[in-house]
């Protein structure tokens, strides 16, 4: 049985009423998020600025909360390990160069940094608060000799990164918080920074019904929408069926450049 099932329309009133009746203890937290959403949308019209403010609010509670609604340390470690084991199982080698989009406080990044050769990990995030927490993780894990790069980003054009440099680009729980124009910006530019044979893995909240969002924080897409959007920029996108067997609510896709169809790392 699949661990991941496509979501129904969570923005629909009927769904919200059913959810509230099943989980009355979660209603106050959702109400607080709704108030925050309304306030932040009045202040920030740009989605990146809006979500940076969301991250700052969550990080004020805990760094773990800012990279997932469940703030438990155990869940933080488990999900990071799952990401790491999956990519290593798909051919991630120490000599590869890796870019992690939305690196957060290095939930998985700490494992990638330890696995990769020194200087081969590059993490970007929109939140300065969470990048400071990432530095704390580096110190706690004694990873300073691996010389990882951590950078603040305002967009997904990757303009400050070199051509054909990264064997693996990775984005976990990024597109699940991104409107379609942000995803399109990423697709328009990620091919330039992929090394020959490289791939880009990303997770997303999947629906096979009506595409929707909840509180401008959580976005749900059809697989076909993302596949067709990637093709617009000369990218092949395929659904990763083996990820569906893992205990995670999001689905995963892998993007390669059309020219690299037959020589992908870890294929």
TrEMBL record:
One of its GO terms (molecular function) is methyltransferase activity. Belongs to the CFA/CMAS family. Residues 99-200 form the Methyltransferase type domain. PANTHER family: CYCLOPROPANE-FATTY-ACYL-PHOSPHOLIPID SYNTHASE. This is Methyltransferase. It holds the Pfam family Methyltransf_12. The lineage of its organism: Bacteria, Bacillati, Actinomycetota, Actinomycetes, Kitasatosporales. GO terms for biological process: lipid metabolic process; methylation. Coiled coil: none annotated. Keywords: Lipid metabolism, Methyltransferase, S-adenosyl-L-methionine, Transferase.
């Amino acid at each position: 049985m699949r661990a991941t099932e496509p979501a129904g329309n969570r923005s629909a009133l009927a769904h919200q009423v059913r959810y509230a009746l099943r989980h009355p203890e979660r209603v106050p937290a959702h109400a607080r998020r709704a108030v925050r959403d309304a306030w932040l949308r009045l202040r920030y019209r740009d989605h990146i600025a809006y979500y940076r403010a969301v991250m700052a609010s969550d990080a004020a509670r805990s760094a773990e909360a800012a990279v997932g609604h469940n703030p438990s340390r155990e869940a933080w470690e488990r999900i990071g390990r799952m990401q790491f084991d999956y990519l290593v199982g798909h051919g991630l080698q120490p000599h590869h160069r890796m870019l992690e989009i939305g690196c957060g406080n290095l939930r998985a990044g700490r494992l990638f940094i330890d696995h990769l050769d020194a200087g081969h990990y590059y993490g970007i995030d929109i939140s300065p608060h969470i990048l400071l927490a990432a530095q704390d993780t580096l110190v706690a894990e004694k990873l300073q000799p691996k010389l990882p790069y951590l950078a603040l980003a305002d967009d997904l054009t990757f303009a400050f990164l070199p051509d054909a440099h990264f064997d693996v680009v990775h984005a976990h729980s990024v597109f699940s918080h991104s409107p379609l124009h942000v995803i399109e910006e990423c697709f328009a530019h990620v091919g330039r920074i992929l090394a020959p044979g490289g791939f880009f893995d990303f997770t997303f909240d999947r629906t096979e019904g009506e595409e929707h969002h909840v509180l401008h924080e959580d976005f749900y897409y059809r697989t076909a929408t993302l596949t067709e959007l990637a093709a617009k920029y000369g990218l092949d996108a395929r659904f990763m069926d083996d990820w569906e067997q893992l205990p995670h609510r999001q689905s995963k896709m892998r993007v390669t450049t059309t020219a690299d169809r037959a020589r992908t790392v870890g294929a």
